């Protein structure tokens, strides 16, 4: 009976790990696509961005667009690795999501509400990738 309970717990842990990894993969993919689009908008110098004259971390909008574009592409690529439950993708996913949180923090004056929304999405992604215990990983 104890062995059966242990196997049921292990199966439940594997299911949770798979579910959280899938959640992180989807969130990283969606947020990466959104950052990719925001990068394209900034490169095109669209008028949807707010300009703040006295911001400490002021960047050229075109340069900022390229940064967002490349980080968005990295997030998309890593999310595809997460769909295969690759261990490298979990580790790199945390790093890419952390970089994107920093990038979105620095771009708050240009697109404030969207930056805060993406910071929350990337925070949930990091949580989902880090909460699974080592012995319950699926790949």
UniProtKB/TrEMBL annotation:
Domain of life from the UniProt record: Bacteria
Record keywords, A-Z: Membrane, Transmembrane, Transmembrane helix
TM stretches of this protein: 20-44, 64-83, 88-107, 113-132
InterPro entries: DUF7144 (IPR055568)
Keyword Membrane found: yes
Lineage: Bacteria, Bacillati, Actinomycetota, Actinomycetes, Kitasatosporales
Residues of the DUF7144 domain: 21-133
Organism: Streptomyces aurantiogriseus
Entry protein name: DUF7144 domain-containing protein
């Amino acid at each position: 009976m104890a062995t059966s309970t242990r196997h049921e717990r292990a199966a439940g842990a594997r299911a949770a790990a798979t579910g959280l990894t899938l959640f992180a993969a989807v969130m990283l993919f969606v947020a990466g696509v959104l950052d990719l689009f925001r990068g394209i908008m900034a490169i095109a110098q669209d008028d949807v961005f707010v300009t703040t004259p006295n911001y400490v971390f002021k960047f050229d909008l075109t340069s900022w667009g390229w940064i967002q574009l490349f980080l968005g592409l990295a997030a998309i690529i890593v999310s595809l690795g997460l769909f295969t439950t690759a261990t490298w993708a979990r580790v790199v996913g945390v790093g890419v999501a952390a970089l994107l949180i920093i990038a979105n923090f620095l771009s708050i004056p240009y697109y404030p509400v969207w930056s805060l929304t993406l910071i929350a999405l990337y925070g949930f992604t990091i949580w989902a990738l880090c909460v699974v215990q080592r012995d319950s990983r699926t790949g």
